[in-house]
Amino acid sequence: MASFSQEQLQAIADALADTSEGLRGPEIGRLLTSCRIKDTDPAITKRHRLYNAFAHEQNTRRDRTRIIGFIRKAMKPARFVREPERFEPMRANLNRALAFTGLSVAASGELSKAEKVETLGQAERRARELREDLASRGVHPDVMKFCRQELLQDNYFHAVLEAVKSIAAKVRFRTGLDDDGAVLVDRAFSGTPPMLAINALATKSEQDEQKGFGNLLKGTFGMFRNPTAHEARINWAMSKEDAEDLLSLVSLIHRRLDAASMPPRS
Predict the structure, then answer these.
(1) Mind listing the pLDDT tens digit for each residue in 169-213?
(2) Strands, E, within the chain: which ranges?
(3) Where are the domains of the chain?
(4) Other C-beta atoms within 10 Å of 184: how many?
(5) pTM for this one?
(6) Widest CA span of the chain, in angstroms?
(7) Which of the residues 80, 178, 180, 200 has the least number of beta carbons within 10 Å of its own beta carbon?
(8) 3-state class of 63 per DSSP?
(9) Can you tell me the distance from the alpha carbon of 229 to that of 77, in angstroms, rounded to the nearest whole number?
(10) For the chain, what is the total number of helices (H) and then of strands (E)?
(11) How far apart are CA 244 and CA 226, in angstroms?
(12) Nearest to 164 by CA among 109, 108, 223
């Protein structure tokens, strides 16, 4: 198995031991022990501690097998049951570091091969091409912000995932609710009257459209929200074409939310 370069090792260690979103000191110690990697400098800062341990391991054994094992154990979703909010930020940071190695951590925590980015320029070109294609479609500006270079260094899936999160954020902003997923949709779009209405709700057809829009939101959230629970079922090696179609759907949802009214409630 090929070794990581010094720069790749540093980026991986920096991501895993990020000050605000990475592993904590005791976690690093336990994982190093579990993976039989020598903790060469346990008293120094987390990032340098992890890099030194990785570098010593790779230099000693001339391969990256145990480092790969460390990543797999560190990113097991079961480790985040009590703090699920930590998983996605850590995975995003790690995937940005892994983008240059041809590897990626899936929502299931599995480490697999991915499209390799050779340069920052490649990632920027990928982002620019997506932005240009979406602009030609007239995609909502609230969606375009998720087509940034840093979101596309791992894969298009992450940009779509973040864009879908923006739908829930807009519903919460419009309604003042603090729920998520299907519960948020039901509270915002059900009831007589609902908190948000996408039409006048004067006819059976309009009422059916309201229900259908709620189901569309639930289906979209079901595919992309809470990836630690859905695991690999909602994660795939997404092509630019898939991303464009899905981001166009998110754009449609944003436009309907912008035009939605808040009927008077007694």
Answers:
(1) 999 999 999 998 899 999 999 998 999 999 999 999 999 999 999
(2) 103-105, 111-113
(3) 6-113, 120-259
(4) 21
(5) 0.58
(6) 73
(7) 178
(8) coil
(9) 8
(10) 13, 2
(11) 22
(12) 223
